[in-house]
Amino acid sequence: MAEYDPEYVSLGLDEVNMDVTDWLIANDMNNEEGKQELAQTIRTRVYEATKLTCSAGIAPNRMLSKICSDWNKPNGQAYIAPSRHDILEFISKLDIRKIPYIGAMTETTLKEIGIKTGKDLVERAADLMIGYREIMYTFLIKCGLGIGQQVHHEEKSDETFV
User: Fold this and answer.
1) pLDDT for 158
2) Contacts of 17 (CB under 8 A, 6+ apart)
3) Of 3, 7, 15, 37, which residue is the catalytic one?
């Protein structure tokens, strides 16, 4: 992992978060095909070294990358282009339970007031503002817009997380 991101973050025994932007740029692969090819290469190398399959999510921020990594499990990968249109199209149809940190209780509460998808989070912003504290309201609205953490280590722009 350090070959592609020396400052990768291990999120347990079976999960890693990497910002591969610098590697992609240095290897003239900072495009959709290059991003997907690198993810496939990493997945292949993991399998060859461990005989364990893994999934990859390729997206403009950590939240979307996590969702994508779960999308085609086991042993698959998913990609969201770094465009507002693609992000909003993806998140608008996404069941709220697929969003990291929205647990069973929050899901139940949201669904009781008719919020089932990312699009619903944005469309029902006024209801969320009334029912939740500011920090939770802000979190839910950001989720509905596909906004997640982009900073991995040093501040950069146009990062690609795998």
Assistant:
1) 52
2) 8, 9, 11, 62, 65, 152, 161
3) 15
What is the C-alpha to C-alpha distance for residues 30 and 36, in angstroms, rounded to an integer? 10
**Does domain 85-145 correspond to CATH entry 1.10.150.810?**
yes
pLDDT band per the 50, 70, 90 thresholds, residue 150? low
Determine the angle formed by the axes of helices 134-145 and 84-93, rounding to 10 degrees.
Answer: 110
Place of tokens 């608008």: 92
Residues 51-99 have pLDDT tens digits of 999 999 999 999 999 999 999 888 999 999 999 999 999 999 999 999 9
> Comparing C-alpha atoms, which of 78, 116, 121 is closest to residue 97?
116
> Mapping DSSP to helix (H, G, I), strand (E, B) and coil, where does residue 7 land?
coil
User: Higher confidence at residue 154 or residue 102?
Assistant: 102
Annotated catalytic residue 154: no
Residue 144 dihedral angles phi and psi, to the nearest 5°: -65, -20
Q: Where are the domains of the chain?
A: 9-82, 85-145
Q: Which CATH class is domain 9-82?
A: alpha beta
9-82 and 85-145 have identical folds = no
pTM summary value:
0.86
Output the CA–CA distances (angstroms, integers) from residue 34 to 20, 21, 31, 84, 159, in the order listed: 11, 11, 5, 20, 14
